[in-house]
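Hello K.,

You asked for the raw outputs rather than the summary table, so here they are, unedited. I folded two proteins back to back in the same session to keep the settings identical. This is the first:
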Amino acid sequence: MSISSEHKPLGKQVTGSLHMLSPIVELNVGGEMYTTTLSTLKKHPGSKLAEMFTGQPKLRTDSEGRFFIDRPGTYFKYILEYLRSNQVPTQCIQDVYKEALFYDIEPLIKQLEDSPQIFGELVARKQFLARVPNYSENIELMIRIARAEAVASRQSSVIVCVVRTEEDAARCQDALNSLDMDKKSVVKFGPWKAVPSISDLLDCIQMDVEAKGYKISFQPHVAEKGFRFKSHDFFYKFLFTWW
């Protein structure tokens, strides 16, 4: 039973006594409208979504009396498809995974984590990056340096030193000292104990900076002086393009 406009003042009372509602429920999820049943929404009793419609929920209603959930509505259809037919989505996997985590639908979470996209990100890439000291902090440092040098420029650059082993780190120290004397900022990644190579880490850096909305590329950094080895083995220049 839909809730008519003359009953709007009773919205709080209705949300406090869901057992009196029709089994058909109208939802407004982030501006997207859905119609489903209470039994569908409560299919997994331990989930946050089921709890929203159990007991004394804290749900608001919109101007038309539909229950309002302040989440991206685009992906809720995939949540509903799973609840209705156990169909695991094959599109927008990363975004649906975030919604499954929010609604705490454990069976869907586990099935999505078995998908190649989520498995590769959580088990492979994230586990590797967790072994690279200060990875997230260094990404933020790169962005701060690039933004500081972007005044009246189309591009700004950041020098990155990537060392996989302690031996490589020792070899790079003289070059780092030389760059420091020239007052050039360098962001150093590594060393780490994991299989992925320097090129793998460079790809991760580019991927994560681009995920923040920046346009970026990288190339070997060729030093003018002070390097006793091929600088492009460990030093790279990341270019941020602003316009």
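The second followed immediately with the same parameters:
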Amino acid sequence: VIREYERAVVFRLGCILSKKAQGPGLIFIIPCTDTFIKVDLRTVTCSIPPQEILTKDAVTTQVDGVVYYRIHSAVSAVANITDVHSATSLLAQTTLRNILGTQSLAQLLAGREEIAHGIQAILDSATEHWGIKVARVEIKDVRIPVAMQRAMAAEAEAAREARAKVVAAEGEMNASKALKQASMVLAESPAGLQLRYLQTLTTLAAENNSTIVFPLPINMLESLWQKNRGG
């Protein structure tokens, strides 16, 4: 009895019977002349052990992943290769090393999905005559040396500081332009500067209860002096 997710490849006197797999359900075997091999058609999860890889920019990394595949042709999986699962696992490891060896560290960290699709396409094409269909490939983890992690962190911090300085410089430039325009407006109306002094005094008095030494404009003092002399 062959289960729903299984197929049986029957050999009669060494030849595959009917050139196709039998099942599911009840099959009949002739003793002494027939032998059969059961093949599981369910999806298999193959874990790729960590591979030490030298990237294109000469950085040593360790990368592991996982491959999901299934057998779609039981006859090909039995007749074309000795151990289909072991061969698929070894091919996945070799393909992972070959593909990642042509990528830089930045490409590896930023383009995991594209790299995984490329590995899947290569594996699917290479295992087609084994009766294998590769459903999905995922890169699980990328490990880099501690010294490289520190260097990358220092580089990122320096880049952030540089951007912060640029933003601060742009803010100072915009503020200086605004102050220039404000000074031009106040220069056109001398009374506006005095109103600005009074507004600043009001703001300070509302926030802090303290003694404030407030300077008076020189032109205001001159006008008061001239009035006293005239009187």
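The domain at 42-144 is CATH 3.30.479.30 (Tetrahydropterin Synthase; Chain A).

Happy to rerun anything if the numbers look odd on your end.

Regards,
P.
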